[in-house]
Amino acid sequence: MWVGDHLADIESDMSVFHRVDDIWQMPPARFFMLAHRLPAYRGAMREVALAHHRDRDADPRPAAAQTAPAARSAPASSDRPVTKAALHDPAFKGIFSFSAPQES
């Protein structure tokens, strides 16, 4: 749902970071794969993600329960591995954890 609210930012970031001149001509799977990565770069969508996380962290109400994401198909040959360092980016705060689970 975030895509519709930020199409101009996505289009701009896609042209800068992925050198995509026309997002409207991309296959949908490739569009979403690349758009999902935009917060990792220093562009408009990174600022959107950081603002979202600041707002969420400031809201004292608990987050609504979310369903698990659908399983991805095998990665395309253009997929690059995501590094642990990239996942420590503030845009991903609270999404990924690399510590061992606590036993109770």
Explain what this protein looks like in three dimensions:
The chain is mostly helical and 104 residues long. It has a domain of 72 residues. 42% of the residues lie in helices and 0% in strands. The protein has five helices and no strands. The radius of gyration is 16 Å and the shape is globular. It starts with a helix and ends in a 17-residue tail after the last helix.
Count of individual helical segments: 5
Name the helicity range.
40-55%
Mean pLDDT: 74
Form type: globular
Which structural category do the helix and sheet elements fall into? mainly alpha
**β-strand number:** 0
Gyration radius, in Å: 16 Å
Largest sheet: none
Compact overview of the structure:
With 104 residues, this protein is mainly alpha-helical. 42% of the residues lie in helices and 0% in strands. The chain has a domain at 2-57 and 77-92.
